[in-house]
């Protein structure tokens, strides 16, 4: 564990909160000091959830450490049982409370409550949020699910969606509809929307659909072994993966029902877009392993992008991400240090970032468009509208989400056409890229000025060469969708010629060189 301004994942007890908050009839008693009681902020503000998360804290303070904190925990547990009347309780400690070693699980067992009490052992100083969610759901399934006779009709469980998950609510609806078209009933969806009584019935299903390995793979493996339930391996994000998912479900269910694909517009739309906006665009992909793996396939095979780099922050998914990166001729970046991610993006200078909220902020600072594809996310990524990532409608949503940051359409052409206008000049920056426009006067760009009053060159972060002001101004006249390539080509040309500065003549010479 380390202190940082931003973090891709919280401690593991936040993962347990995500499971508890997604379920119904389950309560989480968390042994935690006063400063760790922030669940309400996470779920009611960011996710805009209309009810408080089912979490009771012991909320001990410094003065309590010299007295009976174990008794404090038992009182909190009894109060939660009396007040909320849950079907089951999960108990655990936050990272701070773990240090005082009160053993919440053992304490709760001695209380003799007449409902299941499930202890959680979440090593806060070795593991993180996704592990916490995965382990919590696994323990709930292990304690509550029972062997049962299979349903008369072919059925499955949907495993993995949690509270605070990236588009989990809409993904569940999309995949439920798709399974219904295939003639397959959904027995239980869990954790999201399930009660402890529902978990007990998971053994009735013929197979499991694993939507998010980060939060459901342990439970899926357990059910495969315990209840003879195979689970799906394909994550249906993107048009191609959705077709593969359908084929996999058919093999598990013997379904021969036909699927209506008329609503899938992404494949035609991506083919019909002017190639200037898509083909060969260099993108950098970063997020949780599941969304990175699927995004890379969509970027290359369905959108025509060039994947310039990829990586993930959750080390549990490092192996498959490294394997896919090798297929793409890349070395995967596996890190939870956002500063390292920023340095990599700055060095690669991609034309687009597909990442998390962290990369959205990085993109703003570097002036690179970014589309969010993965948690962690902020409030704007929990839209009121139906906006899945999975299935055919998810493919449509992804197309829209990715194409818009590239500013397809008339506005950018007009900005370029009227670049000398006081309102639409290049230095003002596109209106839809707010937050990183360079300072400008009413008549155009304000060039850097030295103490002597003369223009001074700007040093660009993309290399060691210096761009002189006139060359930089001329570069900005190049349309946005080829400007990055022009910059890289010119710097490459200058490096080959041994030049330390790029003048306007160097820019034109490089243009002539690469045009041959």
TrEMBL record:
<feature type="compositionally biased region" description="Low complexity">
    <location>
        <begin position="428"/>
        <end position="448"/>
    </location>
</feature>
<protein>
    <recommendedName>
        <fullName>Light-independent protochlorophyllide reductase subunit B</fullName>
        <ecNumber>1.3.7.7</ecNumber>
    </recommendedName>
</protein>
<keyword id="KW-0149">Chlorophyll biosynthesis</keyword>
<keyword id="KW-0547">Nucleotide-binding</keyword>
<dbReference type="InterPro" id="IPR050152">
    <property type="entry name" value="ChlB/BchB/BchZ"/>
</dbReference>
<feature type="domain" description="Nitrogenase/oxidoreductase component 1">
    <location>
        <begin position="12"/>
        <end position="406"/>
    </location>
</feature>
<dbReference type="GO" id="GO:0051539">
    <property type="term" value="F:4 iron, 4 sulfur cluster binding"/>
</dbReference>
<keyword id="KW-0560">Oxidoreductase</keyword>
<dbReference type="InterPro" id="IPR042298">
    <property type="entry name" value="P-CP_red_C"/>
</dbReference>
<dbReference type="InterPro" id="IPR005969">
    <property type="entry name" value="Protochl_reductB"/>
</dbReference>
<dbReference type="GO" id="GO:0016730">
    <property type="term" value="F:oxidoreductase activity, acting on iron-sulfur proteins as donors"/>
</dbReference>
<keyword id="KW-0602">Photosynthesis</keyword>
<feature type="active site" description="Proton donor">
    <location>
        <position position="274"/>
    </location>
</feature>
<feature type="region of interest" description="Disordered">
    <location>
        <begin position="428"/>
        <end position="458"/>
    </location>
</feature>
<feature type="binding site">
    <location>
        <position position="36"/>
    </location>
    <ligand>
        <name>[4Fe-4S] cluster</name>
    </ligand>
</feature>
<dbReference type="GO" id="GO:0016636">
    <property type="term" value="F:oxidoreductase activity, acting on the CH-CH group of donors, iron-sulfur protein as acceptor"/>
</dbReference>
<dbReference type="Pfam" id="PF00148">
    <property type="entry name" value="Oxidored_nitro"/>
</dbReference>
<dbReference type="GO" id="GO:0036070">
    <property type="term" value="P:light-independent bacteriochlorophyll biosynthetic process"/>
</dbReference>
<keyword id="KW-0077">Bacteriochlorophyll biosynthesis</keyword>
<dbReference type="GO" id="GO:0046872">
    <property type="term" value="F:metal ion binding"/>
</dbReference>
<dbReference type="InterPro" id="IPR016209">
    <property type="entry name" value="Protochlorophyllide_Rdtase"/>
</dbReference>
<dbReference type="Pfam" id="PF08369">
    <property type="entry name" value="PCP_red"/>
</dbReference>
<keyword id="KW-0408">Iron</keyword>
<comment type="similarity">
    <text>Belongs to the ChlB/BchB/BchZ family.</text>
</comment>
<comment type="subunit">
    <text>Protochlorophyllide reductase is composed of three subunits; BchL, BchN and BchB. Forms a heterotetramer of two BchB and two BchN subunits.</text>
</comment>
<dbReference type="GO" id="GO:0019685">
    <property type="term" value="P:photosynthesis, dark reaction"/>
</dbReference>
<dbReference type="InterPro" id="IPR000510">
    <property type="entry name" value="Nase/OxRdtase_comp1"/>
</dbReference>
<dbReference type="GO" id="GO:0005524">
    <property type="term" value="F:ATP binding"/>
</dbReference>
<comment type="function">
    <text>Component of the dark-operative protochlorophyllide reductase (DPOR) that uses Mg-ATP and reduced ferredoxin to reduce ring D of protochlorophyllide (Pchlide) to form chlorophyllide a (Chlide). This reaction is light-independent. The NB-protein (BchN-BchB) is the catalytic component of the complex.</text>
</comment>
<feature type="domain" description="Light-independent protochlorophyllide reductase subunit B-like C-terminal">
    <location>
        <begin position="467"/>
        <end position="511"/>
    </location>
</feature>
<keyword id="KW-0004">4Fe-4S</keyword>
<comment type="pathway">
    <text>Porphyrin-containing compound metabolism; bacteriochlorophyll biosynthesis (light-independent).</text>
</comment>
<keyword id="KW-0479">Metal-binding</keyword>
<dbReference type="InterPro" id="IPR013580">
    <property type="entry name" value="LI-POR_suB-like_C"/>
</dbReference>
<keyword id="KW-0411">Iron-sulfur</keyword>
<keyword id="KW-0067">ATP-binding</keyword>
<feature type="binding site">
    <location>
        <begin position="409"/>
        <end position="410"/>
    </location>
    <ligand>
        <name>substrate</name>
    </ligand>
</feature>
């Amino acid at each position: 564990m380390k202190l940082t301004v931003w973090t891709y994942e919280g401690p593991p007890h936040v993962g347990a909160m995500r499971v508890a908050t997604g379920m119904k009839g389950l309560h989480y008693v968390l042994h935690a000091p006063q400063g760790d009681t922030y669940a309400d902020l996470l779920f009611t503000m960011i996710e805009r959830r209309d009810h408080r998360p089912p979490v009771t804290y012991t909320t001990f303070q410094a003065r309590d450490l010299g007295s009976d904190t174990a008794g404090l925990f038992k009182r909190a547990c009894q109060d939660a049982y009396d007040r909320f009347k849950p079907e089951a309780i999960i108990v655990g400690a936050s990272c701070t409370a773990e240090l005082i070693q009160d053993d919440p699980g053992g304490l709760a067992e001695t209380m003799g409550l007449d409902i299941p009490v499930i202890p959680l052992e979440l090593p806060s100083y070795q593991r993180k949020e996704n592990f916490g969610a995965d382990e919590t759901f696994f323990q709930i399934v292990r304690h509550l699910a029972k062997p049962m006779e299979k349903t008369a009709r072919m059925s499955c469980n949907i495993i993995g969606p949690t509270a605070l998950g990236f588009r989990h609510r809409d993904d569940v609806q999309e995949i439920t509809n798709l399974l219904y078209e295939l003639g397959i009933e959904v027995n239980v969806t869990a954790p999201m929307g399930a009660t402890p009584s529902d978990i007990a019935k998971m053994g009735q299903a013929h197979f499991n659909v694993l939507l998010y390995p980060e939060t459901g793979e342990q439970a899926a493996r357990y059910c495969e072994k315990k209840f003879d339930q195979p689970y799906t391996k394909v994550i249906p994000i993107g048009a191609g993966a959705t077709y593969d998912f359908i084929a996999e479900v058919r093999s598990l269910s013997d379904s021969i029902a036909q699927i209506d694909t008329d609503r899938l517009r992404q494949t035609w739309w991506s083919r019909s877009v002017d190639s200037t906006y898509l083909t060969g665009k260099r993108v950098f992909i970063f997020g949780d392993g599941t969304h990175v793996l699927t995004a890379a396939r969509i970027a290359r095979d369905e959108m025509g992008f060039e994947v310039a780099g990829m990586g993930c922050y959750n080390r549990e998914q490092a192996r498959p991400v490294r394997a896919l990166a090798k297929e793409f001729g890349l070395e995967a970046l596996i890190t939870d240090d956002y500063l390292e991610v920023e340095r990599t993006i700055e060095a690669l200078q991609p034309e687009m970032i597909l990442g998390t909220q962290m990369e959205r902020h990085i993109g703003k600072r570097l002036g690179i468009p970014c589309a969010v594809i993965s948690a962690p996310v902020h409030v704007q990524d929990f839209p009121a509208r139906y906006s899945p990532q999975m299935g055919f409608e998810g493919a449509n949503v992804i197309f829209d989400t990715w194409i818009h940051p590239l500013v397809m359409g008339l506005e950018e052409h007009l900005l370029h056409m009227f670049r000398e206008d006081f309102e639409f000049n290049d230095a003002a920056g596109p209106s839809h890229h707010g937050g990183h426009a360079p300072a400008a006067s009413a008549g155009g760009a304000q060039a850097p000025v030295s103490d002597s009053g003369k223009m001074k060159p700007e040093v660009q972060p993309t290399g060691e060469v210096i761009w002189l002001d006139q060359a930089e101004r001329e570069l900005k006249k190049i349309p946005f969708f080829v400007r990055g390539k022009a910059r890289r080509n010119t710097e490459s040309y200058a490096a080959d010629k041994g030049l330390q500065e790029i003048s306007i003549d160097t820019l034109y010479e490089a243009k002539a060189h690469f045009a041959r």
